[in-house]
Amino acid sequence: MSVDFQSWTNTHIAHFETVLAGLxxxxxxxxxxxxxxxxxxxxxxxxxxxxxLTFAAAELVGAELPRAQYAAASVELIHAYSLVHxxxxxxxxxxxxxxxxxxxxQYDEATALLVGDSLQTxxxxxLAEHRLSDDASRQLAMIKLLAAASGSRGMAGGQxxxxxxxxxxxSVPELEFMxxxxxxxxxxxxxxxxAHCGNATDAQLSRLNHFGKCVGLAFQVVDDVLDAEADTxxxxxxxxxxxxxxxxxxxxxxxxxxxxxxxxxxxxxALESLAEFGGAARRLRExxxxxxxxxx
Length: 296
Prior knowledge:
The protein is mostly helical and about 300 residues long. It has one domain: Farnesyl Diphosphate Synthase. It has 15 helices and two strands. It has helices at about 5-25, 30-40, 50-60, 65-85, 105, 110-130, 135-150, 155-165, 170-195, 200-230, 230-235, 240-245, 250-255, 255-275, 280-295, and strands at about 95, 100. Strands 1-2 form a two-stranded antiparallel sheet. Strand 1 (about 95) and strand 2 (about 100) form a beta hairpin. Helix 3 (about 50-60) crosses helix 9 (about 170-195) and helix 8 packs antiparallel against helix 9 (about 170-195).
């Protein structure tokens, strides 16, 4: 009997939470405050979209779940570190994340800075110390992939462009360039790392990369719409902060309806890139649906 998407999601998230809890340093191990803050920033929060994309891509190519879980954890740790740093006063200066006080509010700024540093390095430790592929060169490529997606040519670079764009008017291509890096790079990496845990071909990786580019942009477009329309309680983070900070978004450039239309088109493009995979790409299709249709 086929497992429905919600059951598949719930099962994988429940297992993943246990995996994450075991991979993070125990709270009672010195330095206790730092380890407590790391666990606070990572556990029991978020949609876990990136790990789910890793698992779905791994299933698509027949990869073993134990291997994929380390790849998924490495991506989620990078994502969590980026949220901790993004929320700090020197960046977006936010006080709420995942329905609870941000890390620097709950602890302090210095601790939050070290939390981000520590989560980032732990992500690469996981990729290096666990066998994720039978091919050592492929595993090395996975480390390089996550590093590139996280750095100045990826997520961090996108954040730098975002900070430099406050109060400015960007064109849609300029906004896409920013978000292909800030949001899209890590989403693409999540998918490709899952595929690398199996024996994905170059052709498969190319199609999955295009899928990741489309759903990554769609994720951001929907985020912009939700930031403009949803409330703080629903989002679990401060609603309307993009407008308050005078940041260029797809909503400010296009309006809500046109932004929704863009998300729908990206959704369709993403699904078309999976056509040749047939039924094996079911979970990736369902995740694309979730990303575009979500309410939080």
